[in-house]
Design a protein that fits this description.
It is built from eleven helices and seven strands. With about 240 residues, the chain is of the alpha/beta class. A seven-stranded parallel β-sheet has the order 1-2-3-4-5-6-7.
């Protein structure tokens, strides 16, 4: 989700998706807008994760405080990065700032077990999108708090200096899936079209972020425009056949 409007969360929640990701890395989503998006997600009972703009603890803690289900963290290149992310997300590591009065803490009514419950519920997806990360997959996956090794294929192809869809990139994605499976973690992948999902399920990927609100809207608009052009073309052909 790249559009700063909580109504889109409502619409996508009604569509029956398993979860959605609000994109703070590449979209103009401030914390006030995210707060409303998290509220809409709670109303629809659809988990919303946030792709945070950095590994900074304050960027991570703030989106979990407002009740988002987890984080997708760009450019995790090694185990130190993964541990920094875990420090920012999990209370049990002793470094995350604590306030029980936020939505995530049920506004102070979460009880003494809130911190442990929050740690158990929150999801961390570490984005693998750098050549360097491919050399440290086992060590990243070994950080206990990391739930998913998630491939950003475009950035990874740029870092590897290969074309999207190349044999080299496919092999790299497969290696991420293998490392995740060996560590008992999930493997994830961004795909632009749902038709790409089955081939990666067969290769061990089980978490998919597919397209965006922008691409869904664009595809719908294009379909309407194409249908209109087809009707217009057919009408012109019929006129030509009638001779006027």
């Amino acid at each position: 989700m790249k559009t700063p409007d909580p109504r889109l969360v409502e619409i996508l929640g009604l569509a029956g998706l398993d979860f959605a990701v609000a994109d703070q890395e590449h979209a103009p989503l401030g914390i006030e807008t995210l707060d409303l998006m998290a509220l809409a997600a709670k109303a629809l009972q659809m988990p919303v994760l946030v792709r945070v703009p950095s590994r900074r603890a304050e960027a991570i803690g703030s989106v979990l405080d407002i009740g988002c289900a987890g984080i997708v963290v760009p450019h995790v290149r090694g185990p130190e990065d993964a541990r920094d992310v875990a420090d920012g997300a999990k209370y049990e590591r002793g470094k995350r700032g604590f306030s029980p009065s936020v939505r995530g803490g049920a506004y102070g009514t979460g009880g003494p077990g809130y911190r442990a419950d929050a740690d158990q519920r929150s999801i961390i997806m570490a984005q693998i999108e750098d050549r360097e990360a491919l050399e440290h997959l086992d060590d990243i996956a070994a950080v206990p708090e990391i739930d998913t090794l998630f491939v950003g294929p475009v950035d990874l192809s740029l870092s590897m200096q290969v074309d999207p869809g190349s044999i080299e990139l496919d092999a790299a994605i497969a290696s991420v899936a293998a490392a995740a499976r060996k560590a008992g973690k999930a493997a994830g992948l961004f795909v632009s079209d749902p038709s790409h999902i089955p081939r990666w399920v067969d290769r061990g990927v089980s978490v998919f972020i597919c397209g965006s609100d922008q691409s869904i809207l664009l595809a719908g608009g294009r379909a309407i425009a194409a249908a209109a052009r087809a009707i217009h073309t057919e009408a012109r052909q019929q006129e030509d056949q009638r001779g006027y």
